[in-house]
Amino acid sequence: MARIYPHLAFAFLTAALLAFGAGIPRPATAQITDVSQVMELEVLPGWRRADGVHVAGLLITLKPGWKTYWRAAGAAGISPQMNWRGSDNMHSVTPMWPTPQVFRQGGSLSIGFDRDFILPLLIAPRDAGPIRLNGVLDVGVCADICLPARLSVAAVLEPSSSVDRRIEAALADRPRRLRAAARCQLRPIEDGMSVTGQIDVPHQGTSETVVFEVPDPTIWVTDADTVRQGDRITGVADMLVMGEGELSVDRSDILITVIGDRGAVEVMGCTG
User: Model-level pTM?
Assistant: First the structure.
């Protein structure tokens, strides 16, 4: 039986919440004490694949009018953080995010979900026995107010062969990985660099957004200005260093996602 213990993590991303401007949902007041009133989480234990990888899922249920955020949340969002160090018989865990929506708030973007969704997890165990999943998820949930929430997850994942079709559907809903031509021009700016990406990918709908991601968590990537011309879409964003240090980016590590109202595609790496 999975056990979920939702409670507020008041210290989590306080600075990000306080930075929200006019037109952006404001931080929660002291009267809100139980995030489970607006968001619930259930572990779907999933199954063990023939290659030994365990496929599990997190079922996120949101009350109407509330939303939470994708792996890259946008300037007006709160990117989720996960810590699975308390788990047993686990070598690694990889979240496989489904396709999100893009919300425009006060001139800024947030990227996430305003409906129930399943986040699949691909877990590599150390041996063939059960996995004891123990983790902490720091997320944001927003409506007219924003709540930083910490969800503690505990579950035992047995090596079952029974496939959960709900998790399979969520895996199929991810952005499609394409091998497409992508070029990135990097230009130094104060505190970082500007990136201009030109990606040859099909239209993803009438409203498209380009998202740049890099593996270094100390690099903040701004919302991209996006222009579509035929089969080529161009995104321009800034990559800024958070704190001290120099910014170094390998073009082959830049993940570019194009999100539209009809779906999403992603391209790994770009050339000069």
Answer: 0.86
